[in-house]
């Protein structure tokens, strides 16, 4: 529904009294509301004035002006392309001679500057040694002479002539103080906007002196733009009847937890409870820093919807299984939880053949093949921290072999893994059904649900369905679904979230209904972006953590490699794990980091329990699961940014961090110290003196890092996931938080 302020600003509003022809002309140049006028300010101003006094030349040597003159002499000089007119004229107002020069004269100019003619010329009048001259003067016609002193708006748009005519018409008829105030523009901003489109001489002089608009004028343009943008977003915020009003009892679930909730968790849960206990379908984005405890908030929402059904969409199988285990662990036995994975296949264990590993995307940053210092680093890691081998981040990517699966009924046969020297190797599949690990422990059914053609979820009793994108391609009949959720929502496109919501909406009847919708994200966005997004979807922030994260972030280079080796050895001795992250998958000659496949040989030669995977690895999720159980060191890409919980992970080493955004760096760093374990993050770079990385290393606050990311990227493509696109503004910047607050208040004042 169109917002009230947009309705008032619509040029078709009868109170503006514009004719159909005028409205049509305005729409053709992209102007349909009063706010749109402010999106098309002049690029420059032109004011032709008759010279009033010669005293101005006491302070300056040149001035653009019009002058009434009589031509006394006109001679042609030069030849060919170098021909020019040398003209003598006499000022009628100031009784003084003026020398005029016209280069590349056109034939008509010989007559226009005929001897004895009186005319008004315009150009830059210069004074040199008491002599006045003007180069390339223009003769003004009668119409231009009559408009001397008038300020003309100049536009750079392709259709500038039509745009100028429309803007001038609208500024005369509708663009005034009263209408701007009615449309929510403050008096101060309205006054500046009117000066921009109805300027006086003082404004034009100020514009020229500043080389553009003043700060006050720019703030008015920014306010106009962000107000319009937020009103359009708010108008797209459609309200639907909820499938069900959810008021399930959730306090007993919270009280039964073996730990206390943080204030942020409690606040988010209470807010969600109010949302779900409504006849209007809720739409809320819950943002929290890495490790803030969003899972418990998700499970609390499930209890609010119980006994009606809830669905959760996860971006990866690893995260889906992880959430499933958490749900089985904390939810009451009466709440039936099911897991849906893709391709009608699931495995809980498995291994790659060793020859498959040779073809994976393999990564390493230290070329240690022929380095004596490197061998010394292994033998005497604590003696020196100098001469770290120069890294190179290059990826060798090949497709791994396909592993064939056999099925009997709906359950995939188990894969029994073995390992040699810490590197996974696969064995043949058996012909025996094997339930999942959790099912073996509890005696319950296997952790995954698999569907044949025509199966529906209703055929299986479940209150809480957790799944990957496989959910979107099932023939689901879920009439009693009250709540749909998406975790790490920025990993899904708008269409995917819309499809999930639509699947469980009731489209029949005069009043269609939708399930309540919650989106969760561990990627905080800047406060200004959150305020903008709140016009489209409700936003909640969880700003505190269940425990204080103890992560030391260090920027290291070549000389610190021996110390890094010593650190890894000591951490592995404590049964802790480490990850080395490389940002590149394909080999690049333009990046000064060594081939990762070469480095892999070093890591596997000197450390046990080394696992390797990348974004192109079809078995990456299984590799991550095996690493979590028995690995020491994982070589990977940024695929481990989201969704993997590794309780024993104490160290993460990020190669070439200067190539990654601060938000991604923060997500990667958030993989360590998940349960209060002392954590270490090493940023391995050739450019250690980097202010951006130093500021990142100095804080663990995801919201502060989001603001830093905004500062260094200057808005850029900050994907919040709400609309899955970067917002582009002409004047407004995400740094203009005060102006944004003003616009938000203007909207709220109308709605209150």
Describe the protein's architecture and organization:
It is a single chain. By secondary structure, this protein is of the alpha/beta class. 33% of the residues lie in helices and 19% in strands. It is built from 26 helices and 29 strands. The strands form eight sheets. The chain has a seven-stranded parallel β-sheet, with helices on both faces. The chain has a six-stranded parallel β-sheet with strand order 23-29-28-24-27-26, sandwiched between helices. The chain has a five-stranded mixed beta barrel with strand order 2-3-4-6-5. Helix 22 links the parallel strand 26 (610-612) and strand 27 (633-636). The longest helix has 21 residues, at 215-235. The two termini are 17 Å apart.
Fill in the keyword field for this structure.
single chain, 752 residues, alpha/beta, six-stranded parallel β-sheet, 29 strands
